[in-house]
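Single Protein Entry

Contents — chain, fold
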Amino acid sequence: MDSLKQRLLDYYSLSLEDYARMTREPSFDFIPRIDDHPSVKRALSRIEEAMERKEKIIVYGDYDTDGIMATSIVYRSFLKRKKPVSFFIPSRYKDGYGLNLENAKKIAGGGYKLVILVDNGVSCFDEVSYLLSQGIDTIIIDHHSLPEALPPSYAIIHPETLHYGEAPVSAGYLSFLFSVAMLKEVDPYLLTLGALSTISDLMPIKAHNREIVRLCLRHIRKLGFPQILSLTGATRIDERVLSMDVIPVINAVGRMDLGTKANRLIHYFGDDFSEASEAIAVWMKENNAARKEATIKAEEKLRVEEDEPGICAIGTLPEGLNGLLANRLMDRYEKPTAIFSPAKADPGLYVGSIRSKNGFSVLELEQECADLIEKGGGHLHAGGLSIKKGNYGEFRERFLSYSASHPFVKEEVKAIPILESETNMETFRLIRELAPFGMDYPEPVFSLSSIAPARLAYTRDGRFLSFDLKTGARLFSFSFGKEDFDSRLPSYSFLGTLQLNEWKGTTRINFMCEVEGQISPTKK
């Protein structure tokens, strides 16, 4: 068997040159800049003019983590220039996504002369046109798909118009690059916020995206930003902690709040950390706990017809939580799932979220149901839509029909053979050299073979597999318990990832048997 390092390189199809490049010291020098692009220079010139004239400026963002980070970055950049500006995060339920005409009129009535739209704007043709008619300029920093007709903005900063890099980027990433041009320096904290948005918006972790996340993790370890650390109890911060602990706390505010309390988050991330910040952190975590409880209760109340090919139901959650519930149900029942709830803004509509996996295209389904959908969009395996309440029955029938003809296609998980003697800290460190992991660059999955049933042990209630390996590492699973194993079989093989577990001052390696697809133990 090849060395473990070679097995890892083969797994990712990397050469030794690739390995050397990926494990070199992270540096901002490896990230392409946008300072000299004409649209960036034009935007900066307009900002300088506005500051010199003491014009009123407002930053208008979005309620998800990417929008919060992008708004916070631009807001804090002005503070660093000692030029405070206003900001606004719209309500998911009252305002919807992006600048709407009602808020554009409020901005005009507020005497603003410059609006900076972040994580939205390229689809706001009418709203930007209205602002222009009122003598108000706009600067757009956005990464969403460009329409055929661009709004008449003073300057548009977008990955496609910039011809930027080899991988798509988040609005927070773009806002950070804009801050570098605006401040003429690289602020480690603003970089960290840009990286957080990269992870939250599921940007592919390669090229410049990978570099900014590597820099972010190094800055957090060295500088310990309290805005990040206060949202997690973890002592060791990596991309998994940011993804599983920090980002859900931020997203929960926009999902749970029916008003505009998400604006508190801009003070939290944009201002210096203070006692007020500590109070906001507590509130954010309490809000996330309420979100979890509400989702669990809604799942318990929902009746699922197990003999149907998919799940399509009307739930009791606010529409901002439908996607989370749909994802939970999809993973639990391994079926395409669509969850709806009454629209807050229009009592005649249901607003829903669809989640799927390989074999089921949300985009194709939406095309087939276009005559029933008032508004829709999304990606291959995730989408959002609104339908008239009277069309729900017909939509449900078509959804279940499409589900029956497009079942999930399970893909064989690619795994690296690993010896039991290799389940140790040295292997974990070797894996982390290739980190961070994320979208389009997952953690390596390992195959551990020849484990005799007599060695298997479980938690006290028998629900979870949990036993020590010969190296002192622990093999653990939240998916498999005592009832899943047959002691008469000669041996089992396990698929899993190596994770570092820190608990009550002790550190050990866990071989976690939790991989996408819920791969069962197999007979050798």
The domain at 31-223 is CATH 3.90.1640.30 (inorganic pyrophosphatase (n-terminal core)). Residues 29 and 309 are 51 Å apart (CA to CA). Confidence is low (pLDDT under 50) at residues 516-524.
